[in-house]
Amino acid sequence: MVNRHMKSMYDIGIVGAGPIGGFIASQLAEYVDSIAVIEQHKTVGKPVNCAGLITPRVFDTFSIPKKNIVQNEIKGAHIYAPSGKKLSIGNENVQALSIDRTAFDQYFITQAEKEKASVFLKTKVLSVQREDHIVEVICSNNQQFSCSCLIGADGPFSKVRDIFGFPQPSEFLRGIGAVVKDISIDPAYVHIFLGCDIAPGFFAWVIPIDKKGTMARIGLCTHQHEPRPPKYYFEKLLNKSPASDILKSAKIIEKTGGVIPLGALKTTAMDNVILVGDAAAQVKPTSGGGIYPGLVCANQCIPTIKKAFESKNYSSEILNTYHEAWRSDIGRELSLGMQFRKIFKNLNDKHFEKYIEKFNSPAIRNIITEYGDIDYPSKLVKPLIRKAPSILRVVPKILK
Ligand SMILES: Cc1cc2nc3c(=O)[nH]c(=O)nc-3n(C[C@H](O)[C@H](O)[C@H](O)COP(=O)(O)OP(=O)(O)OC[C@H]3O[C@@H](n4cnc5c(N)ncnc54)[C@H](O)[C@@H]3O)c2cc1C
To answer: How far apart are CA 150 and CA 200, in angstroms?
Structure first.
């Protein structure tokens, strides 16, 4: 990835070389005359602020090669109540994959560069303004350029979102994590820990990342109003929680963190500007996973940009077709996710104990294993209610 000299004008400018910006660049570079990707960090995909768990669907849908990216296959999950009581779901099918996020992000940028996208690393977008249907972008190192369309793929704290006055996500989860070695777990199962004293407002995780079960990415998120810092809960996770048993010999080799925006924005396009990925909070509110929904939405922006390029018309009228397209594709799933999130935020430790116990019947476990889909969690609701109506007695009123 060699930095080129910036031209004064590009068709498309993309802020952010994360998976979403990289994917869009890789899909558009061949089509448009010129495209610039601006990334503040010196290496694409670093630092890693992600647990790196995605479904095989991501590779199939977006034709991504698994080689050098997939680290491990996951076939099930152990979910723990605060007391340590456990619900295990899974079978012989691969439900999820743990990935090398750096390799994943770099794959897209390498593809984009092959198609002649210009990638500028160690370059931070400082300010942007729109004048006469042209967006002027001022970057660090005294660099600047103009473009017909600016794509904000600049993550949870998107500058493009803020400068152009797009709405804000409804919530930001605060995350903390680490890569650990010297543990001994079943490599095919992730561990999820629930509890108001474990990860208030969300959950903690242990995700095996090698085939021997000796290394894992571990971490947790808390809701944004939690007065104690995530570090406090991370120490507890290691030393005083149902997770400490499997983490007692763990040695931290790398620390991670990050923020997850929730509540997909109601506006994601205006004249000459669109927002995609975390910048638009296109994230699953139930799991905090943003890679699949971000890519789905990014994929929906490709035909819109092509149409705008062909007609040389980047007005909100044209760019809004992207907004409509992603909403009709995955918008409903994301808003149902927000409804679940509202319910989840109000659960206490007594609820967690009750649900883990109630869901721990062979019939319900089978339904979860058969119908559970990390990317489309709402698909589980109907079969659960149809095949195990007794759970209606324990679910909160709002679900009924
Ligand atoms: C703790 C944690 C765990 C997670 N676990 C998972 C998981 O297991 N599975 C999953 O699917 N998702 C997970 N996510 C979410 C996932 O990481 C994001 O949804 C995904 O990275 C979004 O991609 P993006 O390209 O939109 O944004 P990002 O990956 O954030 O990329 C944005 C890029 O823009 C750059 N940038 C920002 N501002 C500027 C600027 N002004 N100038 C130049 N460059 C700029 C940044 O440096 C960055 O490279 C997790 C997130 C966190 C915090």
So the answer is: 37
354 lines ligand 1 (CB under 6 A): no
Mention every residue, 6+ apart, whose C-beta is less than 8 A from residue 331. 264
Closest CA to 49 of 280, 256, 313: 256
91 alpha carbon to ligand 1 midpoint, in Å?
31
**Residue partners of 336: CB distance under 8 A and separation at least 6:** 378
Residue pair 121/22 in contact by the 8 Å Cβ criterion: no
155: left (phi over 0), alpha (psi -120 to 50) or beta: left
Please enumerate in sequence order all residues whose Cβ is within 8 A of that of 177, keeping only pairs 6 or more positions apart, or say none. 51, 217, 218, 219, 220, 234, 255, 256, 257, 258
pLDDT at 4: 62
The pLDDT tens digits for 246-264 are: 999 999 999 999 999 999 9
Give, using CA atoms, the residue closest to atom 38 of ligand 1.
154
C-alpha–C-alpha distance, residues 160 and 284, integer Å: 22
| 8 A C-beta contact, residue 278 and residue 21 | no
Q: Both tokens of residue 241?
A: 């929680």
Query: Which residues contact residue 230 at a Cβ distance below 8 angstroms, ignoring those fewer than 6 apart?
Result: 174, 175, 176, 220, 221, 222, 257
Q: pLDDT, tens digit, for every residue of 51-83?
A: 999 999 999 999 999 999 999 999 999 999 999
Amino acid 396: pLDDT:
57
Q: What is the pLDDT of residues 132-159, one digit of tens each?
A: 999 999 999 999 999 999 999 999 999 9
Counting from 1 in the atom list of ligand 1, the atom nearest the Cα of 58 is: 11
Average pLDDT over residues 376-385: 88
- What amino acid occupies position 363? A
Q: Are 394 and 355 in contact (CB under 8 A)?
A: yes
Token pair recorded at residue 239: 């030393």
Q: Give the side-chain half-sphere CA count within 13 A for 161.
A: 23
Residue 387 has what pLDDT? Answer: 75
Residue 394, pLDDT > 70, answer: no
- Whether 154 is in the pocket of ligand 1, judged by its Cβ within 6 Å, is yes
Q: Which residue has the tokens 């794509």?
A: 151
241 φ, ψ (degrees, to nearest 5): -160, 170
The residue contributing the CA closest to ligand 1 atom 39 is 154
